Amino acid sequence: MPNERANRIKRHWDEWFTFLTHPEVKPDNNDAERALRPIVVHRKVSGGARSDWGAKLVAQMFSLLETVCLQGGDAIAQLSVDRKVLRSRTERYL
How far apart are CA 88 and CA 67, in angstroms? Predict the structure, then answer.
């Protein structure tokens, strides 16, 4: 068993310790954990999406909001733009 662990460490050394040779890579995943926190809190407070459709909608909503925020944009303004675009596309088919 100890020999298996040593071999595993040798095999994966470059992947696990990339941050030692590339200073731009962080040694932890705290940013990812922080990004997930609002989603987890939302799920806990709301009781979950309660359907596959709802789960997909929530996932898309949080993905959009997080992407806009990471790009330095205004999430509310982006939702307004998206709503207008969706409305104009929908009106073509009515």
Answer: 23
